[in-house]
Amino acid sequence: MSGLLRIALKLLLNDRGKFVTLVIGITFSAFLMTQMTSMFSGILHQSAANIINVGAKMWVMDPAVETPQNSIPLPNYVLDAVRSIPGVKFAVPLYIGAGLVKLDDGTYQAATIIGLDDATLFGRPTMIAGHILDIYKNNAFIMVKDANYPKLNSPRIGTSFEINDHRAVVVGLAHTAIPGLFGLPTLYTTYTRATEDLPPTRYQISYILVEPKSRTDILPIEAAVHHLGYLALTDREFIARNDRFYEFKTGMGTNILMMTLISFFVGLSIAGETFYMFILDNVEHFGALKAIGAKSRELIQMIVFQALVVGFLGFGFGVLLSSGMIALAKLKIPNYAAMVTYLTLVLALVMVLIISIFSSYIGIRKVTRIDPFDVFRG
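Below the sequence we write its predicted structure tokens.
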């Protein structure tokens, strides 16, 4: 570190009140920005829970479908047509629907019912109790043990209840990668049982899960399905389609964006004003340095260095505070939808850097106009 930067650091730390105020202001701003964007990332991640948990490489659906929760049933002939497409290794039906569970105490609880292909059980969850083959027993359902599990009174293997006036028996407990977004318990059963026990519509296939023979077969399969009048997407494309829906077609994306911008402007105003006051208090020091030969470029480097020190400290404390709060919230609220991602950190860092640049610009304008004669005369 050069001598001038050491002086800049000493000037910054010498006024502890303004230094702490600067760090707290940027910390608060970085905390809010990280918290808001992390919540949005968590919501998007959990909204794609069915896509991630099932794990299919390709999904065939009605072109109007935008999220996995809002499926539009497909006619049975589409399944046969997809299976006949060159490059398709196999294709199986998947049912995703809502069921109304009646518990022993007479209360009702909505639940998500997923019906797996009877022959392959493709997309099945990871078993933690019981055996997957027990799903073929009469009235058998496998319960996902996640944050929403207690809403069905934490059933054990052998527990029975009613789903849409049909008897259901828990034959196993399972684990999935992530819980759903909307707080509904999830039950797995066979495709046949799901379509028999839930209110039927004209068509019953929610999605067709496709396993291509190779990655080079994906585009031809998508083109062939499009020719049928339907839509084929890879899992990543389906997740991206789901994300766009929540970002641009609901109020969620707009609200999160507004809160993030408010956090940004709060940090911008606090840091800008406090840094300007810091420069005013130290104007004689900068004037003295200029009088003994310090160039304007060197003074600018000092101010930028001071702003970056404060910015990175505030960013670090803000991310630490946000991450700690998210971790604590997940311990108390298991289905809390928030996750810190690389994109979240990069976005918060960029906005903190903008705040630092703005603060340093205010200081630079003042320092570069200093006349050493006026400083010594005062």
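The mean pLDDT is 85.
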